[in-house]
Amino acid sequence: MDTLADIKELVERAKNYDAEAFGRIYDLYFDKIFNYAYYKVGNRHEAEDIAEQVFLKALEKISGFEWRGAPFSSWLFRIASNLVIDFYRAGKYEMVDIACEEHSLYDGGCGPEESAMREHDRASVASAIKTLTEEQQQVIILRFISGMSNEEVAKAIGKNVGAVKALQHRAISALGKTLGRE
Amino acid sequence: MKRDIIDVLDECVEAIINNEKTLRECLDAYNEERSALEPLLVSALRLSEAATIEPDYERKRAARERLLAAVEHKAWETGVERQSVPATTRRGAKTPMPRRPFAKLGIVTLVFAMLSSGAIVMAKESLPGTPLYPVKLAVEKARIGVAGSDEKKAALYLDFAAERVDELEALEKDNKNNPALVGAVARNIEAAQTAAGDSAKFKSSMDDLAKKNRVVLEAVLKKVPETAKPAIERALSNIKEVDADDASKHDVKSRNDEKDSGDGEKRDKESNKRDEGRATPESEQPGTKKPKNFKGSTSDNDDGVSGSVQGGSKESSQDTSRTTTRTKAQNRNAPASGEFGGSGAKSGNAGSDGDDIRDDERLDREILSSDNKRKDSCSRCKAAPSARTDDKD
Known about the structure:
The structure holds two protein chains of two kinds.
Chain A: H1 4-15, H2 19-41, H3 44-61, H4 72-89, H5 98-107, H6 113-129, H7 134-145, H8 150-157, H9 161-180
Helix pairs in contact in A: 1-2, 2-3, 2-4, 2-6, 2-7, 3-4, 4-8, 5-6, 7-9, 8-9
Chain B: H1 5-17, H2 23-29, H3 34-51, H4 57-78, H5 103-114, H6 117-124, H7 133-146, H8 150-173, H9 179-196, H10 200-212, H11 214-221, H12 229-261, H13 264-278, H14 305-312, H15 317-333, H16 345-353, H17 356-376, H18 378-383, H19 385-392
Helix pairs in contact in B: 1-3, 5-7, 6-7, 8-9, 8-10, 10-12, 11-12, 14-15, 14-17, 15-17, 16-17
């Protein structure tokens, strides 16, 4: 749908504080950023707050954005990554409890048992991802949750494609062990 | 030959993420690696299935609205009246945005309905970074919205440019810097020019603005886009010409006066009159209004040197030296015959010698001397004007 040229035009308009362009960028990337944040912090509400902050930060910084080969989304993910670091530095992680998150989902009346089980599985995966190294987490989230290609992930994290593949292999092995112990 | 498990895993992951193959199909395709690949793909599949999580719809929508409000706020804060500038001059704007016919009316109504007049008055004094500053800009935007003719719009834009200059000065006073304001000055001038076209009234108003804010505009000129430069350059060159004319006229006038009187006593009386004039507050003297924090930046002194002394009379010695430098620069712009016109017979003679360096030194001495004396006692100057002239020598 949105080609690189379309994204570039949107970004240029956004740099001029065009509300419509910003709205479009928000629609394109909010869910991916939210997912990224969710798997990093393991809490829906915190993830939504972080995702919102990402776009507000992007608004502040967009005038200085320059194209350097990486996709625009990797710039947004970098902002998200920094906000997640701030989140942990601020000690908010003490309030985050995956079990509570699951509980709230059950209480929230998600309805069918299947849906509840999926949320349970999601929470388990989120917990398991948090046991990975920082680089492994980045690769797994950008690859599986944000749907980036190896090349895009490589540009986003500043490594070559071979390194991304190796990190992916090690991360999946580690996740398998963690999830297998449950 | 067995393939590297890293590459095989990556190919299978790619296929699973893109829903091109199932887990079973992948394992069948790489039967040799099945034992190593299977646990990895099970984990990858679990990751892939767990991946997508939907944010709460209401919270997402509310966050979107807050973001768009922040974008509008930012546009007002940093890009005053962007919409008024032709689309071709907007960075990156390839096609004009669709016009919303009732948006302008809506903004005006909202601004006036939501804000009490008290808040608007308070906002008028606000500076960038303060909570009421966006209100101030919104009110300005509303005023442009209701301005009927292009002529009125041009006048308003110039008022807003002057307002941005005042804000720059106020921020500088607090040792703060806001580069965006420089752009806002330029954009308002640019918008004024677009609205006014070749109107003579606009040129006259632009000259007034340049006259009052010469130093700021000279600084702004270096940073503005090419489209805004002509109006500022023309206004600055106009005021230089006017300065030169004024200086020249004044020189001729003082020479005529000298001829008429024929003695130095009359000149001393004139000088004394000027000194009395210095006691008048700055703001009460026509044509000498200065920006709050750019003392001496105006160049419309009626009496050349004495005007500069006036600027430094209440300032520290450092300020006096700044004033001196500016006066020298201004005098260099004026024709030789007009230099130091009206500063008394001695200055007039020095000017006619054409020795700039000696003129400057003499000028410095005159300024410092008269400044010190004024600090001692202004009444003494009035009582013995001739003695003061002797002191200078």
